[in-house]
Amino acid sequence: SAITCSDATPADIRSIQGAVSVPATFDRVAEICFGDNEITLRSESGQLVTVPLNYKFVLGEGLQP
């Protein structure tokens, strides 16, 4: 359903998108692990790629994924 926004009922919509280089042998993402201002992507074959990410922008201060 659609979100209706007005002065009386404001909506706070936060999102993050990104792209990162991975090895050619990196297959599908199996898991995303959150660290301190970073995420680690684990492929189905077990390869790991860690990138910096300030996810607190989306979750808010003091919240953990």
In words, what does this structure look like?
With 65 residues, the chain is mainly beta. It has one domain (1-65). The chain contains one helix and three strands. The chain has one helix at residues 56-59, and strands at residues 29-35, 38-43, 48-52. It has a three-stranded antiparallel sheet, with no helix packed on it. Strand 1 and strand 2 form a beta hairpin. The protein is elongated, with a radius of gyration of 16 Å.
How is the topology of this model organized?
Blueprint: E1 29-35, E2 38-43, E3 48-52, H1 56-59
Antiparallel strand pairs: 1-2, 2-3
Number of helices: 1
Structural class: mainly beta
Principal-axes geometry comes out as: elongated
Low-confidence stretches: none
Distance between the termini: 25 Å
**Major sheet attributes:** 3 strands, antiparallel
Query: Which percent range fits the helix content?
Result: under 10%
The topology string of helices and strands comes to: EEEH
Tell me the total number of β-strands: 3
